[in-house]
């Protein structure tokens, strides 16, 4: 990501669209980085196996594929919930009673909401990951 000089026309109150665009760009890049990391981890064996250690109950190729599919479904649900939560938060009117939110507070709330939705998806979420997993496992068998 490159750092752009500050455009002073944005300081007149139209900062939110550029913030949203930057946030969406950062989310896309972090999602791609996470996918790349998971792909790399799936391709390289753990150090213990490379040293000659053999587990008692090694996972079969089907188990590994099922686990990767489950993680992908949970990741999709987390991203969907995060986007939905962001849109729900945008419908709440902001009060000037306590002052305007700073950019730092908005970034903190976005990060907190993203982690909250990641935790919700891992703990069962709203069932999208389960439905996707069931549907995709039927087609792959």
Uncertain runs are none
Based on CA inertia axes, which overall geometry fits? elongated
The proportion of residues in beta strands is under 5%
Secondary-structure class: mainly alpha
The largest pleated sheet is described as: none
Mean pLDDT: 78
Please give the count of helices.
Answer: 5
What is the helix fraction of residues, given as a range? 55-70%
Order of helices and strands: HHHHH
What's the helix and strand layout?
Elements: H1 15-43, H2 47-50, H3 61-90, H4 103-122, H5 128-140
Task: Outline the structure in words.
The chain is mainly alpha-helical and 141 residues long. Helix 3 packs across helix 4 and helix 3 runs antiparallel to helix 5. The longest helix is centred in the middle third of the chain and has 30 residues. The radius of gyration is 20 Å and the shape is elongated. The two termini are 41 Å apart.
């Amino acid at each position: 990501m490159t750092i752009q000089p500050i455009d002073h026309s944005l300081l007149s109150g139209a900062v939110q669209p550029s913030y949203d665009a930057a946030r969406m760009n950062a989310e896309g890049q972090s999602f791609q980085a996470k996918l790349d990391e998971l792909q790399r981890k799936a391709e390289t064996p753990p150090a213990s196996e490379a040293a000659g250690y053999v587990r008692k109950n090694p996972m079969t190729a089907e188990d590994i594929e099922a686990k990767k599919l489950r993680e992908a479904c949970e990741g999709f649900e987390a991203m969907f919930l995060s986007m939905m939560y962001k849109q729900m938060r945008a419908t709440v009117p902001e009060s000037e009673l306590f002052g305007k939110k700073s950019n730092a507070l908005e970034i903190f709330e976005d990060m907190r909401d993203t982690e909250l939705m990641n935790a919700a998806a891992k703990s069962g979420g709203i069932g999208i990951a389960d439905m996707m997993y069931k549907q995709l496992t039927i087609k792959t068998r």
